[in-house]
Amino acid sequence: MQEIEPAFLEKQYLGRDHGRISIRLVLALFCFAAYYITERSEQNTELFLVVGCGILITSVIMMFLLHYKTTVNNKSIVLDGLWTTKMVKIDLNSIVKVERTPYSSFIINNPVYNLHQKGTVRFYADGKDAVKLTDRDGLLYIIGTQRPVELEQSIKAEMKK
Questions:
Q1: Nearest in space to 101 (alpha carbons), one of 127, 119, 136, 78
Q2: What is the largest CA-CA distance in the chain?
Q3: What gap in Å lies between CA 117 and CA 81, rounded to an integer?
Q4: pLDDT digits (tens, 9 = 90+) for 108-120
Q5: What is the DSSP-derived secondary structure letter of residue 15?
Q6: Rounded to whole angstroms, how far apart are CA atoms 114 and 121?
Q7: Sign of CA dihedral 139, 145, 149, 150
């Protein structure tokens, strides 16, 4: 049986948000600077080196940790998250409005998956843009993406099928 190519596929990784990467790097640099500045005779000097290396190793591991995958196919959007998260399937037949918007006015945003808050369901890992979907019941889905034009076009194309 041949698998059908999805209209849109995007993988969002947990540790690739530029704001969070820079915060982790500044913390690691602080630890390394504190290690070199403190006298070697002090008891906890090596702790700065261990913590700095730990931050760097954790940061590298997080860059390869898949937060969620967005797939547009068969008149639906499938958002599949980490190991223990449930897959979310949005039926495009119930969607009445699709628009591109900025995700948030904040500089640094927390990664979220299936966050229900005030009539809005949010999905975000990285990027400044999002696609906002409104269903018949008035529920908003905000899907953060790094390729908003492609996502919007593929959703509209699938809705017309």
A1: 127
A2: 72
A3: 18
A4: 788 888 889 998 9
A5: T
A6: 6
A7: negative
